[in-house]
Amino acid sequence: MDAALIEKAKTGNEHAFRLLVEKYRMHVFHTVFAILRNQQDAEDAAQEVFLKIYASLPQYENQGFKTWITRISVNHAIDMKRKKTRRQEEAVIEFQPEFHHAGKAETAEVIVLKKEQKIFFEKRLGEIPDNYRDVIEGFYIKEKSYHELAEEQQVQVKTIETKLYRARQWMKKHWKEDDFR
Q1: pTM for this prediction
Q2: What is the C-alpha to C-alpha distance for residues 164 and 23, in angstroms, rounded to an integer?
Q3: What topology is assigned to 2-90 in CATH?
Q4: pLDDT value, residue 115
Q5: What is the 3-state secondary structure (H, E, C) of the chain?
Q6: Could you tell me the CA-to-CA distances from 172 to 93, 128, 132, 176 in Å, in that order?
Q7: What is the dihedral of CA 102, 103, 109, 112, to 10 degrees?
Q8: What span, in angstroms and rounded, lies between the C-alpha atoms of 95 and 103?
Q9: 6 half-sphere exposure, CB direction, 13 A CA radius
């Protein structure tokens, strides 16, 4: 039965594709949920998976439909999880200078977040290796710009960017994610 529906769906028959979606909807959902562990994310991912399946149907070569859609589901869920993890890491550590030094128009939320962040770094500053400590203290605690830090240390701005990047990598590696919340 799947083979006939697949062939019809390949020719653009939307009803045939809807029947395939209905048949495999829960399988795809359970597959992505097993990876993402979040219902809303899994629902979104399942919809996106079916869009990928629809777009990829012309390349499907009857090698086992359920296996094929499972592979697409797993790969998509892993990609989503990686993106989400990256976004969380960036939100936690990769504070942008524009955000960090927002100026006069700071909202109460930004002010509170900056204060918490400052307290966090003051408490943990001693754990940071010496070669990163000065840029972490200058940027996060004293709230200096890249340019101010570069002038003080008599180095290029790019050097400060590199040191901050490496310091953030060190923190990601040595501190638990919960430490940043």
Answers
A1: 0.51
A2: 51
A3: Rna Polymerase Sigma Factor; Chain: A (1.10.1740)
A4: 78
A5: CHHHHHHHHHCCCHHHHHHHHHHHHHHHHHHHHHHHCCHHHHHHHHHHHHHHHHHHHHHCCCCCHHHHHHHHHHHHHHHHHHHHHHHHHHHHCCCCHHHHCCHHHCCHHHHHHHHHHHHHHHHHHHHCCHHHHHHHHHHHHCCCCHHHHHHHHCCCHHHHHHHHHHHHHHHHHHCCHHHHC
A6: 8, 12, 13, 7
A7: 100
A8: 15
A9: 18
* Cβ-Cβ contacts under 8 Å for 155 (sequence gap 6 or more): none
How far apart, in whole angstroms, are the C-alpha atoms of residue 28 and residue 78?
Answer: 13
Record: fold of 93-180: Arc Repressor Mutant, subunit A (1.10.10)
Q: Using one digit for the tens of pLDDT, what is the confidence trace for 11-42?
A: 999 999 999 999 999 999 999 999 998 899 99
Tokens of 7: 């062939």
Name the token pair of 159: 């050097």
* Predicted confidence (pLDDT) at residue 6 exceeds the cutoff of 90: yes
Return mean pLDDT, the chain: 84
2-90 and 93-180 share one fold? no
- Domain range list for the chain: 2-90, 93-180
Kindly calculate the radius of gyration of the chain based on its CA atoms and give it in whole angstroms. Answer: 24
